[in-house]
Amino acid sequence: MTTSANTSTRIGVIPSFSPLRTIRLGIRRIPVELKMYFRAGDQVFFTFLFPTLLYSLFATVFSDQDLPGELTMATYYLPGMIAGAILLSGVQNLATDIAVEKSDGTLKRLGGSPLSPVSYFVGKLGQVIVTSLLQIGLLVAVAVFAFGAQLPTSAEAWGIIAWVYVLGIAACAFAGIALSAVPRSGKTAAAVVIPIVLVLQFVSGVYLQFSALPEWLQSASGVFPVRWMAQGLRAAFLPDAWAAQEPSGSWDLGIVALMLAVWIVIALVLARLTFRWIHRDR
């Protein structure tokens, strides 16, 4: 009996943990994930600092443009950039990070340890939530103190921001996990993921005024969650009169919530079906 038990341990039989301990192990991984995240300089630039730097560029270049209702470009660009920050934190961050860890053998080693996939992803999701909130905080601070952007003043508007963030970060995080299965190696992960993320931002009203896009492009962007995050955040940051600039002439917050919820389900199913500790062909 003793020999059998020792043999089982050596060949890597993973013990069964209770759900509470599984979550607790995941929470303990969050500081580890954060340390690895901030040690990667290129990742910090392209996912953490990039939205703030790009916002500063746009707010400076287009500062002289007049908008109806005394709305400044600094305020107009802020909701779209926040949506872009959520997209970068969830999709780009996780897709490239997991693809690299899968390629360099990190996931293979973790797969042979007592750490369950649930604990692993609790750590990843915790890192995404912390870094995205810090990222948004930095972006908002620069927007307000450096460019005079106006923040919402009503509790209702802040409530909209809160639920758009929760649904958006969940949808983007699960989508990032699913997308991590696409790159064939860690070396190609950035080349695969970054163009996808950039195109989604351009067609979803992050970098360009959404009402200025062709109607067919506005409709096509409705397939993806970033368009709905940007629309929901515009409803919180912009005056009600700006709802007329949306494709339907209103903010459609119910549809925003529905589409983000649908994306959470779709992305979660895809992530569950595609995630492997190692590439399938290895």
Task: Give a description of the structure.
This is ABC transporter permease. It is found in: Membrane. InterPro entries: ABC2_TM, ABC2_TM_bact-type, ABC_2_transport, Nod_factor_ABC_transporter. There is one protein chain. The chain has helices at 2-10, 19-39, 41-61, 73-103, 106-111, 117-147, 155-179, 189-203, 215-221, 225-237, 253-274. Helix content is 71%, strand content 0%. The model is unreliable at 1-15 (pLDDT under 50). By secondary structure, it is an all-alpha fold. The protein is globular. The chain has one domain (17-274). The chain contains eleven helices and no strands. Helix 4 runs antiparallel to helix 6 (117-147) and helix 4 (73-103) runs antiparallel to helix 10.
If you average the pLDDT, what whole number results? 86
Hey, roughly how much beta strand do the residues contain?
A: under 5%
**In whole angstroms, how far apart are the ends?**
34 Å
Question: Count of helices?
Answer: 11
For the biggest sheet, the summary is: none
**Which runs of at least 5 residues are low in confidence (pLDDT < 50)?**
1-15
Class computed from helices, strands and strand pairing: mainly alpha
The Rg value, from CA coordinates, equals 21 Å
- Element string (H = helix, E = strand): HHHHHHHHHHH
State the domain count.
Answer: 1
User: What overall geometry do the principal axes of the alpha carbons give?
Assistant: globular
> What's the number of extended β-strand segments?
0
Pfam family, one: ABC2_membrane_3
Main location: membrane
Organism: Paramicrobacterium chengjingii
Subcellular location: Membrane
